């Protein structure tokens, strides 16, 4: 983020009073970015810097991460939708970019509060269509959550979401858990791992419910990557088929991490032009 860009940190209060940390930068119409799993509001900071020339970009920490408070005991899509609604009301923003599981939350918010979002960009929402995701592993994930076993949660999440090279998520869960333990030495990573339970609750809440998204109003941009996992491309294609007037952009040669910061192997410069064209 360039030194000339106006940056401010603030706190938005959720409906239940929980603080939601928000970093805002740039000038112009408001644009809220809703991050995905194993991320926080700062994960799209480089992308926000590219979008800030024409927008006031709001990077929100979803609960359990960064400067935000905890989730309630039972949390899923409804809590996330209420939180995004609070952020939109507080900032006055009418544009939203949802990334991965954050895209499901953004789409659900557009459905629950029609007219609140004018322009909605959805990047690779992990919507399971006809068992396209390994949700058969969800009971094992529930058991790991109940046991507080973050390493096993990470291993199972790699199996379910199929992130990384195919040889990686083809390994046994125990091996994936062992490989995840060094990452969990970092406090922010532990917080992100603990929040995986809610990310997968959102995924499960919305499995095989593609047709419901046909009721989204406003302008919609769907973005996927040509080299991403097949189930993500299936989800985007399905949304393109059911949302009237939705525009689809496919980024050639890239994968699911493209929105992330450069030091996390993201390529924000690749996706920013499509977003600037749509939101501009």
TrEMBL record:
GO MF annotations in UniProt: hydrolase activity
SUPFAM superfamilies cross-referenced by the UniProt entry: alpha/beta-Hydrolases
Keyword Transcription part of the UniProt annotation: no
Domain AB hydrolase-1 stretches: 31-261
Top-rank lineage group of the source organism: Bacteria
InterPro entries per UniProt: AB_hydrolase_1 (IPR000073), AB_hydrolase_fold (IPR029058), Carboxylesterase_BioH (IPR050228)
Pfam families noted in UniProt: Abhydrolase_6 (PF12697)
Key words, A-Z: Hydrolase
Record PANTHER family: HYDROLASE ALPHA/BETA FOLD FAMILY, PIMELOYL-[ACYL-CARRIER PROTEIN] METHYL ESTER ESTERASE
Protein name, entry field: Alpha/beta hydrolase
């Amino acid at each position: 983020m360039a030194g000339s860009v106006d940056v401010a940190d603030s706190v938005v209060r959720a409906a239940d009073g929980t603080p939601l940390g928000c970093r805002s930068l740039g000038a112009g119409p408001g644009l809220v970015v809703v991050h995905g799993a194993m991320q926080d509001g700062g994960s799209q900071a480089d992308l926000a810097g590219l979008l800030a020339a024409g927008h006031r970009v709001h990077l929100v920490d979803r609960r359990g991460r960064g400067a935000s408070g905890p989730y309630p005991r039972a949390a899923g899509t409804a809590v996330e939708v209420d939180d995004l609604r609070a952020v939109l009301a507080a900032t006055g923003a009418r544009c939203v970019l949802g990334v991965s599981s954050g895209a499901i939350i953004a789409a659900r918010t557009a459905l629950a509060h029609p007219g609140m979002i004018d322009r909605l960009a959805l990047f690779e929402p992990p919507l399971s269509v006809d068992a396209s995701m390994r949700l058969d592993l969800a009971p094992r994930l529930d058991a790991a959550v109940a046991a507080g076993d973050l390493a096993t949660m990470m291993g199972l999440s790699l199996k379910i979401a199929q992130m990384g090279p195919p040889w990686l998520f083809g390994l046994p869960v125990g091996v994936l858990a062992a490989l995840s333990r060094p990452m969990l030495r970092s406090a922010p990573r532990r917080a992100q791992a603990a929040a995986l339970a809610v990310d997968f609750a959102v995924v499960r809440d919305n499995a095989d419910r593609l047709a419901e998204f046909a009721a989204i109003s406003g302008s919609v941009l769907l973005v996927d990557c040509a080299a991403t996992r097949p189930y993500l491309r299936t989800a985007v294609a399905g949304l393109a088929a059911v949302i009237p007037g939705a525009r689809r952009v496919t980024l050639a040669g890239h994968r699911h991490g493209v929105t992330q910061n450069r030091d996390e192997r993201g390529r924000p410069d690749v996706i920013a032009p499509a977003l600037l064209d749509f939101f501009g």
